Amino acid sequence: MPFAAVPPGAVIGILGSGQLGRMLAVGASRLGYRVHIFSPEAESPAAQVASASTVADYGDDEALDAFARGVDVATYEFENVPVAAVERLAALVPVRPGAGVLSITQDRLSEKDFIRGTGAVTAPYVAMSGPDDAGIAAREIGFPCVVKTRRLGYDGKGQRHLGRTGALGGSPDEALIRAWTELGGVPCIVEGFVDFVTEISVVLARGGDGAIAAYDVIQNEHRAGILHTSVVPARIPAAVADAAEAVARRIAGALDHVGVLAVEMFVTANGGVIVNEIAPRVHNSGHWTLDAATTDQFEQHIRAVCGLPLGGTSRLADAEMTNLIGEEIEGAARVLTEPNARLHLYGKTDARPGRKMGHVTRLFPKSS
Ligand SMILES: Nc1ncnc2c1ncn2[C@@H]1O[C@H](COP(=O)(O)OP(=O)(O)O)[C@@H](O)[C@H]1O
Ligand SMILES: [Mg+2]
After folding, report:
1. Are residues 246 and 332 in the same domain?
2. What is the mean pLDDT of each run of 10 residues along the chain (368 residues)?
3. Is residue 99 helix, strand or coil?
4. Residue at 171 is within a domain
C-alpha cells in the first residue's frame, strides 16, 4: 500500500550510527530533512552530521519511546538492530523497511530459506546448532565448506572456511565441531563453498508503491572477508547482469521491501548466479553512486522511506570504489591530488585493523 509522503522539513530517525548512517544523514539533509540518530555509541560518524542524537541502548524502552515521539519516520542503517527495538518504535511511528524484513535477514538460516523460496539459487546449506548436527553437515555439504554464525556476522567475521582438506587431522565431524566451537558454539549454518569466478551485487530501491529502481550490477572483490573494491559496470555478460537484476527484483518484491536493498551474489564459470546474502539497507558496494549516479543510494533510500518518487539510477561514468581500511587511511590525503578521484572520510579517529575508515571513488569515461 502506498503511504502518505513524509515531506522535507520532517525529522527522520535512524537506528545505528556508522558511516552508512552518516551518509544517509547527509543525503537526507540535502533534501531538507533533519536527522535524529539513535545508537549506543557515544562518538559516532553519523551523530557528527545529524541535528540530534540519542545515545542509549537498543533495549532502553524509555529512550526508544522518546526517540519515536521526536521523529516522523524511522529507518535503520544496519541489520543487527534488535527486532524488538524496531517493533517497539513501529507501534509509535512508521519504520521502513519493517521489522519483518529485519528478522528474516538477520538470521542466515531464515534468510537463505527465504531466498530459496523466491526461486533463487543459493549454495547448499544446513543448520548446525550443535555437535549432533556435524554428521549431517559432513554428509550433505562436505568439504570445502564455510561455517557461519547465523547471527551478527559481518565483514567476514563469524566465519570459518574449511578447505578440501578440512577433514585432515581428524574426522569430518571433528573438523566441523572444531569450527563451530571456535565460532563460540552458537547456532551456525554450514554452507557449500562456491567456486565463483566473480562476486557481484545488485543495489536497488523499492518504493511503498512497489516501484523498483535498480543500479547497474556491481562487481566486488573481497579481501579477508571485507569488501575491498567495487567496480561498475561489472565485467560480466549482459545476460548474467540481467539475470542478477531479475533475481534481486524478485527478492525485493517478495520481502515487500521499502528502501534500498542489496543482494550479494556469486557468478560461476557457466554464468550461474548464486545468491549469497541480502542487506536490507544501503550497501558498501553502492558507494560509487555518490559520485557516478543521477541519484545516490543514500538519497534514494531516504526518498523510498519518505514516500517520495524514486530518483534516476543512470550511471554517469565508469567507477571503481576502494575502501580505506584501518591504517590505509594514513595515505588518504594523496587521493586529493588525483583529478578523477573523490575521497570520502567517515570521521573515525581510531584506525583499528579491519575498520572501514573511508573510501575512494575513481571515475573513468563511460565505456557502456
Ligand atoms: N559459500 C561461500 N563460498 C565461497 N566464498 C564465500 C562463501 N560464503 C562467503 N564467502 C566469501 O566470504 C565473503 C563474506 O561472506 P558473507 O556471507 O557475505 O558474510 P558477511 O556478512 O561477512 O559479508 C563473501 O563475500 C565471499 O567472498
Ligand atoms: Mg557479505
Report:
1. yes
2. 88 98 98 98 95 97 98 95 97 97 97 98 97 94 95 90 73 90 96 97 97 98 95 98 98 98 98 97 98 98 98 98 96 94 96 95 96
3. helix
4. yes
Q: Which is the closest atom of ligand 1 to the Cα of 158?
A: 22
Q: Whose C-alpha lies nearest to ligand 1, atom 16?
A: 156
Residue 47 Cα to ligand 2 middle (Å): 25
Domain extent, residue 209, equals 198-364
Which atom of ligand 1 is least distant from the CA of 155? 22
- Which residue do the cell numbers 538470521 mark? 107
The pTM for the full model equals: 0.96
| pLDDT reported for residue 331 | 86
Instruction: State the alpha helices, DSSP H only, in the chain.
Output: 19-30, 61-69, 83-90, 99-105, 108-117, 134-140, 172-182, 238-255, 289-292, 297-306
| Pocket lining: 223 vs ligand 1, CB cutoff 6 Å | no
Ligand 2: distance of its center to the CA of 277 in Å? 6
Nearest CA to ligand 1 atom 11: 225
The answer on 61 and 148 residing in a single domain is no
